Amino acid sequence: MSYPFRPANNQPFTFDGLIGHMRSVFKDLLDARTGSNTHYTMVDAALGGFSVFFTQSPSFLEFQRNMALAKGRSNASTLFKMTEIPSDNQIRNLLDPVPPKEFFPLFARIIDGLYDLDYLESYRSINGTLLVPMDGTQYFSSTKICCKNCTVKKPNKGKTNYSHTVVTPVIAAPGSHSVFPLEPEFVTPQDGHDKQDCENAAAKRWLTQFAPRYRDWRISILGDDLYCKQPVCEAILGEGMSFILVCKPDSHKTLYEWVAGLETSGGVETLSVTRRHGKQLETDTYRFVNRVPLRDGKDALEVNWCELTTRNASGEVIYKNAFATNHEITKDNVAEIVLAGRTRWKVENENNNTLKTKGYHLTHNFGHGKQNLSAVMATLNLLAFLTHTVLGLMDANYQLVRQKLVTRKTFFNDLRALTRYLCFDSWTALLLFMMRGLEIVPPDTS
Question: Domain locations in the chain?
Answer without folding.
Answer: 1-96+395-446, 246-332
